[in-house]
Design a protein that fits this description.
Length: 467
């Protein structure tokens, strides 16, 4: 076996999907900093550490099936444009959005590792400078990349302590000994039957959506070839405490609240659209056995983490579920919350997501990457949007002495004109919107509807004396 063969590692099935035409996706993350960014400090740190991480120091093989270890020239991956703040004035936000939008039309060089970093020392509404990190989606999913980011940072309040992330609490279960054995047996059978039925129906709907069920052509739905169009990104920061308050009062999860807010916002946006609307969102589901970000990985020093391949093995362990967006409900904003909770509770009692992932893996292994990529591409083109919610750091963090104000991730390269990402950071919830400006001319209106919907839900609860 040659040295090159020893340095090769096969791509996961989902990584192969993200390398296929029509699904050639990149993750783009805007990180706002509270101070100007010292590019020399960033470069020195990358030179010391990036070669220790297998994904960020590997390039694709010629056939796109394997990662090959290579030498990394950091200067080829870090860009620091010369910016004159006086010429731009107070429109720093517009400059950043234009810059990032242009990046979506510049493909990553496949002869080198598939990532780059852009340091924009320009003042915006929420930050003094912005660091834009772009990486190909085949390098890892959002949870993996967030784990790496947290491992590279420290708490702002205690720079010698690594940050922590939110841990998903398991719901309390009733004491089984208090329930008669016969009733437990009946409930178990009923639960199994419901699981099988839900999985069967959801799988049929997923297959139908992939083959022929298409969403209504609305001002949010992209046309054929939308994946090749230039994209634009904006974000909005809302209070995480407000979302938690609604969650507690309504006895639901944060995911339920965010999906309810999304339904309300898209309904408001499409309020003038005539006729009945079919609108489906793909909701990403983490299939890892660990929930959230792995704390054991996040607490390790960066050099140790990057040097330990077995502990930091990157793979795409997620799938998606079809989530029907209820458009045109009554004016009561709380109805959107109840609809979202009801739909999500049902989806949780279904094996559609792992079954979809296993099916994709089987098709890849049995046929080819080209055949395996057809089903995800058709599913995306027949739906309207993707919704993703990620758990971020619980406290404010800093990267090499640069305090971080916000983290706004998004993705481009797939056949949607609208993509919605949520990311919790300290006491904030960052809503990140990615759009095709030829379809959605005003992305800020989507952000406004998100913010207004959340406020309307909180106001309704207050009016009814629930908070």
């Amino acid at each position: 076996m040659s040295v090159e063969d020893e340095n090769e590692e096969p791509l996961s099935p989902m990584a192969r999907v993200f390398q296929s035409p029509g699904n050639n996706c990149c993750i783009i993350t805007m990180i706002g900093c509270k101070t100007k960014i010292n590019a020399d400090v960033i470069l020195r740190a990358l030179k010391l550490n990036v070669s220790k991480h297998p994904r960020f120091s590997s390039k694709l093989s010629d056939d796109g099936a394997c990662w090959i270890k290579t030498q990394v020239n950091v200067e080829n991956h870090v860009f620091v444009p010369d910016i004159d703040q006086n010429k731009i004035g107070e429109d720093g936000e517009g400059y950043v959005e234009d810059y990032v939008s242009r990046l979506t039309m510049l493909p990553l060089d496949k002869s080198r590792p598939l990532w780059d970093m852009h340091i924009l020392n320009i003042k915006t509404i929420d930050a003094e400078a912005v660091c834009v990190i772009r990486s190909h989606h085949s390098l890892g999913d959002g949870t993996s990349l967030m784990s790496l980011l947290i491992a590279c940072t420290q708490k702002t309040s205690h720079r010698d302590i690594f940050p922590t992330s939110h841990v998903l609490k398991q719901r309390k279960r009733e004491d089984k000994d208090k329930v008669p054995w016969f009733l437990r047996w009946v409930l178990a059978v009923f639960s199994l039957v419901r699981l099988i039925c839900n999985t069967f129906v959801d799988s049929l709907l997923l297959l139908g959506t992939t083959l022929f069920l298409k969403d209504t052509k609305t001002p949010l739905k992209g046309d054929v070839g939308v994946e090749n169009n230039q994209k634009r990104f904006c974000h909005r920061i809302v209070s995480l405490d407000d979302i938690k308050l609604i969650k507690e009062v309504m006895n639901m999860t944060i995911n339920d609240v965010l999906l309810g807010v999304t339904q309300a916002a898209l309904s408001r946006y499409l309020s003038s659209f005539p006729g009945k609307i079919r609108l489906t969102a793909g909701v990403f589901v983490n299939l890892r056995s660990d929930t959230g970000i792995q704390a054991t990985t996040c607490m390790k020093p960066l050099a140790e983490m990057m040097a330990t391949n077995s502990k930091c093995r990157w793979g795409n362990y997620f799938s998606f579920i079809n989530f029907p967006i209820a458009i045109g409900l009554e004016t009561d904003p709380l109805l959107y919350l109840s609809k979202a909770k009801s739909a999500m509770d049902r989806k949780k009692h279904s094996l559609q997501a792992p079954l979809a992932y296993s099916t994709t893996e089987f098709i890849f292994n049995t046929f080819s990457a080209k055949v395996g990529a057809i089903l995800p591409k058709r599913h995306i083109s027949n739906t309207t949007t993707f919704i993703s919610n990620m758990i971020g750091p619980m406290e404010e963090i800093n990267f090499l002495g640069h305090p971080i104000a916000y983290i706004a991730p998004s993705v481009y390269g797939h056949a949607h004109a609208l993509t919605i990402h949520f990311l919790s950071y300290a006491e904030k919830m960052v809503i990140s919107i990615g759009i095709d400006p030829t379809v959605i001319q005003n992305p800020y209106k989507v952000c406004d509807e998100m913010e207004d919907s959340l406020e309307a839900m909180k106001a309704t609860l207050s009016e009814r004396g629930l908070i």
